[in-house]
Amino acid sequence: MESVQAIKQRFGIIGNDPKLNRALEKAIQVAPTDISVLVTGESGVGKESVPKIIHQLSHRKHGKYIAVNCGAIPEGTIDSELFGHEKGAFTGATQTRSGYFEVADGGTIFLDEVGELPLTTQVRLLRVLENGEFIKVGSSKVQKTNVRIVAATNINMFEAIKKEKFREDLYYRLSTVEINLPALRDRKEDIHLLFRKFASDFALKYKMPTVKLTDDAVNLLLKYRWNGNIRQLRNVAEQISVLEQNRTINGVTLQQYLPNAGNNLPAVINTSKSESDFSNEREILYKVLFDMKSDLNDLKKLTLELMKKGSVSDVQEEHQHLIQKIYGDNEDEDYKTETVVDNLEVLSIPEHSEVQETSNPMDDKYHFAEEIEEEETLSLHDKELELIKKSLERHKGKRKLAAAELGISERTLYRKIKQFDL
User: In what order do the strands lie in the sheet with 177-180?
Assistant: First the structure.
């Protein structure tokens, strides 16, 4: 069994990171067997190197090695590409064609971006993994193949399974052994080493002196996030090697080749929303204002009834639902209600309390009591209408559920529907 260092030299792998070494050790250990391997990691970390190592160290090294990019093949033709088709199976099938699984019999197939496979193709692939059988498109004859499958993906497979985009049984068949390659940002000590290797290769390729980095440029190189990983680092090294006349690169020059070099803060975004959530903070604010307006109108109504009747018990009995809505429905509700109502000053208003046109309104101590309805701003009115419409649409016209969500009674909602002519 070859050592990790010998494998690095043989396949041109640069780096001394412990996570990288562990991934290579697993590849070396699993290579002599025929079990399936799933290589995971971000895009650009070099996942395509692991299947080559596994194939070259296995007893299948004299067989064919075929790499298939599952994300680059259209959904309508991927079954034909993988499993072949019979003549006349579909429009354009002028002759019988062998698929990759038939051609690679006795060898290794590398399925890159396996998470992009359609669900129907996943069922066919699962059968190949279980018993080595497959059927060509347009055929009824079962064929056998003896291939080893090494798959790779850069997506979160558990999220894909949760969203029903990938079969759980297929995932566990593919990931008998899972090899994870670390992102470049997690291999700080290897970044400058890789850059120097790429700069040396491009200097030889383009027949020009090798570029070198100053200390501040090296620090910037190590602090950068490298979302594109090794592929991005290689592209930056090539750009600098070709475009820069000065072969000594400082931090200012390097920063021009690094997009968003000053913004390395990650953002955590919660994309899950429940059905009753509003889409943004502005709508939440309008919802709060709408609830406050509803409570204020209820309080106005209670105050007006108290001023008209002057009897606390009658008002309390007649408008019990309003009192419960405003002050809550706790165990000490009766105590709270009595306390709040008793503290109100009951105004005694004469039966003929109409103010004469000739009298001065300021002489009436409670002239403001008649001003019940206040003029709302147009924007709040429109927003109230919009919230009612959204709630009705969300609950498919069920007024009871919409009223509960808006925090108002079903009767009040019915009145507003009539008012807004919904």
Answer: 65-69, 108-112, 148-153, 37-40, 177-180
Q: Which two tokens stand for residue 58?
A: 């296995």
Residue type for 239, please? Answer: Q
Residues 206-256: tens digit of each pLDDT: 999 999 999 999 999 999 999 999 999 999 999 999 999 999 999 999 999
Strands 212-213 and 248-249: parallel
**How would you label 300-317 residue by residue, b for 16+ Cβ within 10 Å and e otherwise?**
eebeebbbeeeeeeebbe
Closest by Cα among 326, 316, 324 to 295: 326
Task: Please answer whether residues 137 and 85 qualify as being in contact, where contact means their C-beta atoms are separated by less than 8 angstroms.
Answer: yes
Q: Are 258 and 228 in contact (CB under 8 A)?
A: no
Question: 133: which residues sit within 8 A by CB, 6+ positions away?
Answer: 127, 142, 143, 144, 145
The two most distant CA atoms of the chain are separated, in Å, by: 112
Structure tokens at 312: 């606390």
Q: Decide: helix, strand or coil at residue 333.
A: helix
**CA–CA gap between residue 407 and residue 415 (Å, rounded):** 14
Element (H, E) at 420: helix 410-420
Bridge partner residues of 85 (DSSP):
97, 137
- Is 40 in a helix, a strand, or coil? strand
Q: Could you tell me the pTM of the whole model?
A: 0.63
Give the N- to C-terminal CA distance of the chain in Å, as an integer: 77
Q: How far apart are CA 166 and CA 119, in angstroms?
A: 7
Residue closest to 32 by CA, chosen among 151, 148, 137, 144 = 148
Question: Which helix H or strand E contains 385, and what residues bound it?
Answer: helix 378-394
Number of other residues whose CB lies within 10 A of the CB of residue 49: 19
Nearest to 336 by CA among 315, 311, 307, 316: 316
pLDDT (tens digit per residue) in 258-271: 987 655 555 555 55
For strands 108-112 and 65-69, give the pairing.
parallel
For residue 50, which of 60, 32, 38 has the smallest C-alpha distance?
A: 38
Structure tokens at 217: 């440029």
